[in-house]
Amino acid sequence: YSHRWEIELGYREMKQYMLQNSLTLRSKTPALVKQELWGMLLAYNLLRFMMCQMAYSLNTVMPYQIGFKQASIFLVSQLQMLPAVAPGRYPEVLRYILDMAESFVLPERMERTYPRAVKKRPSRYATRPSRRRNSA
């Protein structure tokens, strides 16, 4: 159940934070809509890959414990500045990104406090009390 929930959160992250809750894509032709969707999936996976690298650099954190919104804003800002950086300084920038990973760690999620169950619906009719049968 928790693994499926993480997948659902991934869909939410793409829709709310990357697409900014917009309902439509800008492209006019089906081929360009596909291209736009593939681009969005590629960008999401690249961000998630960098977040995995950040989590593994901390050794005690799983990738799903890194906050997507804050980390993605930080990563996009760092990647946009990358063309202005000399190629010899790329490892320095990468180390800086990995050093900042600790600031994006989310607090532990609380476990479910009640078991999953189907609620009984009240009936309009009275129920007969169950009688125990004598077993002889």
Automatic annotation (TrEMBL):
Designated name of the protein: Transposase DDE domain-containing protein
Organism: Enterovibrio norvegicus DSM 15893
BP GO annotations: DNA transposition
GO molecular function annotations of the record: DNA binding; transposase activity
Domain called Transposase IS4-like: residue spans: 1-46
Pfam families referenced in this protein's UniProt entry, alphabetically: DDE_Tnp_1
Region annotation Disordered: where it falls in the sequence: 117-136
InterPro entries: RNaseH-like_sf, Transposase_11
